[in-house]
Amino acid sequence: MGANAVRKVALITGGNRGLGKDMALSLAEAGMDIILTYNANQQEGEEVAERIRASGGRAAALRFNLSDASAIDGFIAEVQALMNAQFDGAERIDFLVNNAGIGRAIPLDRLTEADFDTFANIHFKGVLFLTQKALRIMNDGGGVVFITAAADRYNVPNYGLYAACKGAIEVFSRYVAKEYGPRGIRSNTVAPGGVPTDFNDGFIRHNPKLQEMVVAQTPMGRLADAHDIGGLVRLLCSDDARWMTGQRLEATGGFNI
Ligand SMILES: NC(=O)c1ccc[n+]([C@@H]2O[C@H](COP(=O)([O-])OP(=O)(O)OC[C@H]3O[C@@H](n4cnc5c(N)ncnc54)[C@H](OP(=O)(O)O)[C@@H]3O)[C@@H](O)[C@H]2O)c1
Is the pTM of the predicted complex or chain greater than 0.90? Predict the structure, then answer.
């Protein structure tokens, strides 16, 4: 990045591990200043931030729990204080990547209200209000990327609650696109297929039979890795994607098309 180029700031939830870690590293590689969040695993968050700083970038890790919408105002204030102190007095972000999330198979008949609250808080309410409040501190010309799931199109038994929350966010994303387009702010969703991360207790990573099935049904003929998703997020947060908004991009290597 040239000395006079305006630096951009990306806020990535769940940037300490899994898909979010690659997003943080990929956006840092593109020259952005990175604020990544973790919930429970602080050390991994600090390590990702340190890795970015070690390669000449600017990054910091903050704790953020999507389950508690009442804490979002305080979190946004922390984000601004951090930018002010560490990113040359910056007060506004350019990109928000709503990545953090949890997964669990729950047969519909066993679903409880407590499960509903857990998933809806993390995957819908928390994401919606974080986005609302982050948009208030976003520069014109910025963007929001929501990580949803291919499983909200091709339906996987026992993931109804999870997938329904992701589907709700896809609708919400189009409304963000509509309401914030006049400010040049774009909003898109990336819907990954299975990636062998820690997600859902490493269900794909620990299940060779499932991996074989996925590879056999994937036209591109392999399992996904985190950069298959992180690279696409980087594209969406670049000027090369400046005319794309309100879209859902499924990244699965062609699984179940
Ligand atoms: N991997 C897949 O197969 C797959 C497929 C489709 C969609 N996705 C979506 O991709 C996103 C990332 O998944 P992943 O594979 O990277 O999962 P992962 O490896 O399990 O990582 C989950 C991330 O979410 C954070 N997190 C969990 N609960 C949180 C909470 N209550 N508040 C804030 N942050 C929280 C975790 O932080 P801590 O480490 O601090 O707990 C971690 O950074 C999720 O939205 C998921 O639904 C994943």
Answer: yes
